[in-house]
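Reopening this ticket.

The earlier resolution said the output was attached, but the attachment link was broken on my side. Pasting everything inline this time so it's all in one place.
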Amino acid sequence: MDEEQKRIVEEEARRCDFLANRLVNESQEDYEKRLNRQALELLPLDNYSNTIIKKYSKEVGLYYEYKNCDNNNIILESSFNRVIDVLHNKDWAILSAFRSEFDLQTNIKRNRILRSKLNSKQSGPHQLVGHWREAPEGVDYNDATENQLTDVVERTYLVPRPQNMGYEDFKNWIASLLTIEGVTQDCGIIHKYSISDKIQQGKISVENSEYFLLFPNGTTTLLGKNLTANKIAQAYSQYVRKLNVPFVFEGIETPSSISGRMMFRSAGINYL
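Inline output:
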């Protein structure tokens, strides 16, 4: 670990110690206000750029990294599929505070607020990275020239259901988080896993893996069963982003250093 990495780790450790301890003569109200202010502090891992570069290494295979950004985490191309496999028998949701009408820095701050709400229930999210190319206003994507298309990167959170929360409570909680600072998303995606009994030459257990659109009022619409990662990305693009352009989840952000792993752990962010 070099000197700069040590400095970052030490600063983060001091910040966490400060968060954890109520100061002498500090009222409960002031303590909670201070925690809220500190909880929304932007860290380098909260930042990202709209340009990602594809790379390869023998250690991790294909991956992406952000260009011209102090966030040095990598985006593993295979990680989304791996997380879907690991969580196949769990309930989880995909949501974001990203809105296309806001600029990058506003969206970063909105997602930071969302992450603080997720962390309040000890539901550590995975930072999922979506990507598409946008045509200028008034130009159809299929008619746009290569130099007219602009890269757009969106950070989305994949959130496992906390163990101490039932599915209905989880669904309603996620629905409530579709509104951040008075601005409401059209919907999110929620995965429900269950086991049912089927009588067929004796009783057998059947696994059910169902995907739903989840709306802010808590209602759901079935998307399908046993969806692949590509199908999930298509559903997100069509129904959540309402994009008529190619969209892909490039992967999940993963720390590229020991200090990065420590910061992820401190910030309550999951990775594989």
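Reporter confirms the inline version is readable. Residues 10 and 259 are 10 Å apart (CA to CA). Confidence is low (pLDDT under 50) at residues 16-22.
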